[in-house]
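Minimal example, chain plus magnesium ion.
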Amino acid sequence: MAEQTYSLDTIMRALENREFIVYYQPQYNAITNGLKSAEALARWRLSDGSIVMPGSFIPVLESGPEIMELDWYILREVCRFLHMQEEKQIHRVPVAVNFSRLHFDDGDFLPKLLETVDGFGVPHRLVEVEITESALSENGDEIISQVKEIRAAGFSVAIDDFGSGLSSLSFVKDMDVDVLKIDKSLLNQNCEDEKERIVLESIFMFAHRLKLKTIAEGVETREQLGFLRTCDCKLIQGFLFSKPLPEDEFLKICAEGESAGQAEDILTVQAPSAATQLLLDAVFTRYPLVIFSNLTRNSFYMMAYENFTARTCPSTGVFDELIEHGTATMHPDDQDAFRQTFDRQNLLKAYENGEKWVSLTTKQIGNDGVYRRVETTDYFVKNPSADDVLVISLCHNLE
Ligand code: C2E
Ligand code: MG
Ligand code: MG
């Protein structure tokens, strides 16, 4: 059924008369089911008490600058709510507010945001700026710098409706946001279609590698939830958990706090892909430098190196050059041993002789100019679909 639309004049009069109210849709931790945050959604309450949905007024407002007036109105209502919670000492969670792309056409968005939020004395971490995917791709470079400033001021920024439009993955890479909200259009029925699952799994993998928090929108079924958990999706927003709620009902949920969620055992709900990520986290904790190398093809790829003390090497390239580079960073006493042990031909011989791993402790100079003992262990692994000989190098400082 087509939604009824109203004229711009009628809507603006309603806004002046404060007929718009905020509904809050809770966002829950996908594993523990605990309340984590919420999204503010505009509703228009008519004099007979009936509620008009955004589809009947947002598109009309979006045809001109009037949408910005609604967005600022909603932000003020949200700040008033957060301030009231503080006065009543009720548990607060961050609230995301939708902002139309028009806000980012000129540079005065952040000053206005600060004026409103600071005017209510609300901590910046409690306000999330939600910007729709299409706005980001249309406004290009200009929005990238604005997003940086908004985040530098302590607000979190989310890309809304990701996957609904045509924005490229490389654009998300450049955006430097906190949260990626996966659009509900990607969650068809019960996530049974294999191709759809592959697309979703890839999006979550990509988002997590970029260290983005993920929220799935429009989650309606247990099956969808089950699948999203296997993708290690962090937060869930959808009718399965809760519809958008009027302020008083949301307030009750906040008062119950995070403990209201019934925690589920992570080991029973997370499937292998998520378990693998957990395992990797544990490995990276112990070994801050992990390198995958293909000895047959003379290539390498570093998986984790941000926390390692020596970081001057490129993160991917030719294996022989990696060893040359590594040798140069070793203490002069250790250079020959390092070069010999990790020489590609010598490693291939060791593999052919049935060795499972090769290990060496050397002194290596860090970016700070200090030599530290480092243990490097190369584990041989077999590529199941090719004859290539691969090694995984796990490195850690001993002091
Ligand atoms: P959105 O920002 O993507 O918000 C999520 C929409 O998905 C909401 O629709 C929410 O009610 C709906 N939703 C959440 N879970 C489920 C579910 O499990 N199943 C289904 N079928 N739907 C679910 P709503 O409230 O009708 O809002 C529609 C859109 O209107 C929003 O999409 C947003 O783009 C826009 N909007 C709402 N409030 C504002 C506002 O204050 N400012 C601006 N600029 N846009 C707003
Ligand atoms: Mg939104
Ligand atoms: Mg959305």
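The first strand starts at residue 20 and ends at 29. The first helix runs from residue 8 to 16.
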